[in-house]
Write a structure and sequence with these properties.
Layout: H1 15-26, E1 30-31, H2 44-62, H3 72-83, E2 94-97, H4 99-111, E3 118-122, H5 126-133, E4 139-145, E5 148-149, H6 151-161, E6 165-168, H7 182-194, E7 198-202, E8 226-231, E9 243-246, H8 249-263, H9 268-280, H10 283-308, E10 323-327, H11 334-343, E11 346-347, E12 349-350, E13 363-367, H12 373-389
Parallel strand pairs: 1-11, 3-4, 3-6, 6-7, 7-8
Antiparallel strand pairs: 2-9, 4-5, 8-9, 10-13, 12-13
Helix pairs in contact: 2-9, 4-5, 4-8, 10-12
Bound molecules: pyridoxal-5'-phosphate.
Length: 392
């Protein structure tokens, strides 16, 4: 009986918005929704070759069950890859997951019971809110403005509510595209360590930095309390569905037990194929090829926004990640604007779902990552005209 289902989680786009975005994705609408990596950048031929080699040389293993913690050579490759981000991890401190999304769910399942409080940046990655809400509805937000976390709010939250963990995206923050400075990272690590608060560091965009390079929290000293979450989705392909958690080995063992109960393991075929790919193609070379393309698209969107958006709208140019976060005048609801925008040929993500607690209607997220510069210019011109028409 439908009435016997548990109450649905709240932080999802409304049914109507979801349907509109799905339809838009299947049409020739210029879509700035979804923060998708550029499909033109997928290394299709190299992955095809890795797949062929996997099937020719390792088909028995690739088609068989594997260990819940992940395919051991891939765990070793991930550990080696993280060392380039300044993180020293042993392969046994890594759990391979179905994307970063599963990593977030598993950590929440491990740490949180329904009475616990979870601290999150506001705004933040919407689907993380969904994952956490399944464990506890007690969400507490800490304001994040692009490159600044409001530390006094965090301190107050730590003192008052003793949250079970703080979820944070220090680099290429989704949705704002900002990154915390080295000084802020230092303070964050010290404050959470002192107050005994676990930190979940989501580094999905950590390698997609355009202007300066910040190192992850987990690369610092005294970060045993930090769970690091990584992903191949934005830097290689989300279709592989491979991400990972790096934490102390005892936590990895517990997380593996939870994962086992949920899906036994991440797909062997994906893991072996990825491992074959990484063995012959340094990922840093691929990322180096992607960065100028994304930077060009970001810059194209920055120029177009300045040209076509009214001065009442506000934004900062992202230093990392895939999206611009636009604040519209209070009188405009981005969700209400979407059907009209799609009718004019442009789609975007309304930002209300990015707020853990009090939803604000007047924000939109515009992802530049999967659009060519000429379509960015065209789409922003249409959107700018529409937004201007709503301002008296
Ligand atoms: C900040 C952040 N974390 C995690 C994810 C999920 O990534 P994955 O595809 O690895 O599950 C996303 C996807 O958009 C994201 O933006």
């Amino acid at each position: 009986m439908i009435s016997e289902f548990k109450a649905p989680i709240g932080h999802i786009q409304s049914g109507q918005t979801e349907q509109l975005l799905k339809k838009a994705a299947e049409s020739d609408v210029i879509s700035f929704a979804g923060a998708l990596p550029s499909s033109a950048l997928f290394p299709g031929a190299e992955l095809e070759e890795a797949f062929a080699r996997t099937m020719a040389e390792h088909s028995r293993e690739a088609l068989q069950y594997n260990w819940c913690e992940g395919y051991q050579p891939l765990r070793e490759q991930i550990a080696a890859h993280m060392s380039q981000r300044g993180i020293h991890a042993a392969p046994d401190e890594i759990l391979v997951t179905h994307g970063a999304q599963q990593a977030l769910s598993l950590i929440a399942k491990l740490l949180v019971s329904s009475a616990d409080t979870i601290a999150l940046e506001s705004p933040t990655y919407a689907t993380a809110i969904q994952a956490f809400e399944l464990q506890s509805r007690n969400l507490l937000d800490v304001r994040r403005d692009f490159d600044c976390l409001h530390f006094f709010m965090l301190k107050e939250a730590l003192d008052r509510a003793q949250p079970r963990f703080l979820y944070i995206i220090p680099t290429g923050h989704n949705p704002t595209g900002g990154s915390l400075s080295a000084v802020e990272r230092e303070s964050l690590v010290a404050m959470t360590a002192n107050d005994g608060c676990i930190v979940i560091e989501d580094d999905a965009y950590g390698e997609l930095q355009y202007d300066r390079t910040e190192q992850p929290l987990k690369s610092r000293e005294n970060t045993e309390h930090v769970f690091y979450v990584g992903s191949f989705s934005k830097i290689l392909s989300p279709g592989l569905r491979v991400g990972w958690v790096h934490a102390q080995q005892k936590a990895i063992i517990e997380l593996s037990r939870i994962k086992q109960a949920i899906d036994l393991q991440t797909g062997s075929l994906s893991q072996l194929m990825l491992s074959q790919y990484l063995a012959t193609h340094p990922l840093t070379d691929h990322v180096r090829r992607c960065l100028p393309v994304y930077r060009t698209r970001r810059d194209a969107m920055a120029v177009s926004l300045r040209q076509h958006f009214p001065e009442e709208a506000m934004w900062r140019t992202p230093v990392a990640g895939f999206s611009f976060w636009i604040k519209l005048p209070d009188t405009i609801s981005a969700e209400d604007l979407l059907p009209e925008a799609i009718a004019h040929g442009v789609a975007f993500d309304p930002g209300c779902v990015n707020f853990p607690c009090e939803r604000k209607p007047n924000f939109m997220r515009l992802s530049f990552s999967n659009q060519e510069p000429q379509h960015i210019e065209e789409g922003i011109a249409i959107l700018g005209k529409l937004v201007s028409s709503k301002i008296d």
